[in-house]
């Protein structure tokens, strides 16, 4: 593979904002700080915003790396796929893609974005959904803190329908329904809640008490159609479906991508769990419940460890597996954050770089080209207001770009 040039900031500046370096036993690695992509919200294709996902990256991040470091037709992979941001952006840029995640929820929400349907087909199907069937709610899971009984009846009927109806229109309906399960505005099915996190029932009861409200009736069909309209508004559906058909979606551990052929991927753009900053199982419990996914099974497999050594071994094993699937000279852009670890601020980019120079880990597999630190005005503002990093998770993007040796 011919080497592609080093990336330059999207801002068009010819010199980077600030350049530092990470010292390694193989020499210094340049660390570039700049606003590589915009801090503005919702600038990319509307399908990216079909639903929220815990700790997802902005589509601008894979967009930047795919444009800079791959060519049309190349295969772009993400072993920690989440809501499928990398593969969707790959397809939008005329690349091929493969995406994996340990949580089957990832496949449920990624597939429909790669097989979008027309709003006419969507509306026609929604109109036929049998959501008014009677239900005995006393035999169902108690979700009364989230949903009005009539809304809950409609959700349960939709859930049952989706168990046996699985064409692309049904799957798109499922993805849109997942996006509406809980949130803060009247467009969601639930009483006022959090859109990105499925909070525990006890916390929802407290929210209702504090606000002095009971869940009000939220009709399901009209909310599905409204959200689908906004998700599909940027079009290009035929092109996305044509590209989406070629995408490989797998469910499994990033350390064992057995369905991904050897030397098949040109560029990986990915973001692993940052130790145990996020609980990907607990925080998606309403989604997994709706999809009938057994959360207990995933709990044992998702890697969210408080132990740095264990995390380093996990990332190292993933890098070793990615070494197998990458073409010679293939690249990985791995996004990590800064976290608080044992009272100290820890920049995980430096930890990832150290793996590539360590005999115990990935020595001889990768050469780190550079590290990108996305700096944004909001970070500085947050600091002014003494909003500390990591209080609510991480808030800088640090991307280690490494090349397969
Ligand atoms: C930071 S999120 C990725 C978000 C993604 N970049 C996006 O934009 O949606 C990390 C993902 O890793 C997944 N995960 C955790 N342990 C895993 C493992 N052992 N193998 C594969 N995926 C895993 C989680 O389910 C979660 O979806």
Automatic annotation (TrEMBL):
Annotated SUPFAM superfamilies: S-adenosyl-L-methionine-dependent methyltransferases
Occurrences of domain DNA methylase N-4/N-6 (ranges): 32-104
Enzyme category, top tier: transferase
Keywords from the UniProt entry: DNA-binding, Methyltransferase, Restriction system, S-adenosyl-L-methionine, Transferase
GO biological processes: DNA restriction-modification system; methylation
Family: Belongs to the N(4)/N(6)-methyltransferase family. N(4) subfamily.
Name of the protein in its database record: site-specific DNA-methyltransferase (cytosine-N(4)-specific)
Lineage, highest ranks first: Bacteria, Candidatus Ozemobacteria, Candidatus Ozemobacterales, Candidatus Ozemobacteraceae, Candidatus Ozemobacter
